[in-house]
Amino acid sequence: MKKITKFLVRILCLTCAILLAAVLLPAVKSLLPQPGYARTSTQLTHAMQEAGELTAVTYTDTGVAVAETKALLVGTVLKVSIPYEYKIGFGFALEDVVLEANESSIAVYLPDIVMLHDSFTVTGEVQVEKLLYDLTEKHYQQILDDEALSCRKRYLDGNEYQQAAWDAACKALSGLFSQWTGEENLPLTFLSKAELSST
Question: Cα separation of 34 and 31, whole Å?
Answer without folding.
Answer: 8
